[in-house]
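Hi R.,

Here's the chain you asked about this morning:
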Amino acid sequence: MNKILPVWKYILVLFIPALLAGCAAQNPQQLGDLRLLDWEPKSMLVVKETEVLKPKFPVIDFHNHLRRLEYTEQYLEEMDKAGVWMTVSLDGNPENGFYREHLDVSRSVSEDRFLVFYRPDFSRIDEPNWGEDEAMRLEEAVGYGIRGLKINKALGLTHRDATGELVKVDDPRIDPVWAKCGELGIPVVIHVTDPKAFHEGPVDRYNERYHELAERPEWSFYGPQWPSKEEILQARNRVIARHPETIFIATHMANLPEELGRVSMWLEKYPNMYIDINARISELGRQPYTARRFMIQWQDRILFGTDTPPDAEAYRVHYRFLETDDEYFDPTPAHKQQGFWMIYGLYLPDEVLEKVYNKNALRILGKFKGVN
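And the predicted structure, written out as tokens:
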């Protein structure tokens, strides 16, 4: 026997779904309106996790920034926790004699655990004989204790001379400085350009580093107002070819970790080119098979570096990446978030690890000739 429902029940049956839909419209996450910048997925994958507290061999961190001199003792404590033997600071700025202060403070904390590299002053490049004079200033700095030269990405990208023209990486006015490095037996750590995604596409839904660039749009160098990444890299390579007696450490995996095949060609072509891994394990770790083959092939030309002020936990992520076969883990604590992907360990042979951790760095530092 069919029963006739009261009118109020018909109302509930007909209108509750519509009411619920209306509530859902007020909750964007239920409709897929979550902002990409807010997306922080937690992996459901259960895999092996290896804790590497100390590296298999003593580490020389060849790429760091220790300009906050008040933290120098803390830096040393973190290095000791993580088995780091020596750290290179690339912050030897000559302005107001800062490189001397940097060396003095570093030596007061430890005589042999810190090295400081000099930064040339390109703001004076229009001065007559700037190259020769800057080479002399570099030699004076080496006499005080400087052990290398650092070039940052502003060269070829933002540095301009008095005419308003960009100072290119292969500007002949700089040649005396490159030559002086070879004469003194000190290396040049040279950083030119940033990740490909920062140069070769707009900040849109197709850009794999969208989340970084959306938060820091000034990191984008895409557009006709900027020289191309390729143009700058080729200028760097011309300098390396022009000064075969000088060792150039093309930092950040030669600033092209996205194309290890090309980096391999450069290493083959330029015997005075070395590279370091600093701040690029996120790129290497997403291509573990290719990266492992590359690291083994070029084991004599690769240096360890972090680009992160000494921190034991940051170092340990690097060790896990280099030493283990762990899968799908977050590289962010090693430096900062640099992509929405996880990485895989390379499980490098001990012979390769020891070279990357310290032997290659020692060989380069051993070329130091000193000041006459």
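Residues 47-365 form a domain with the TIM Barrel fold (CATH 3.20.20.140).

Let me know if you need anything else.
M.
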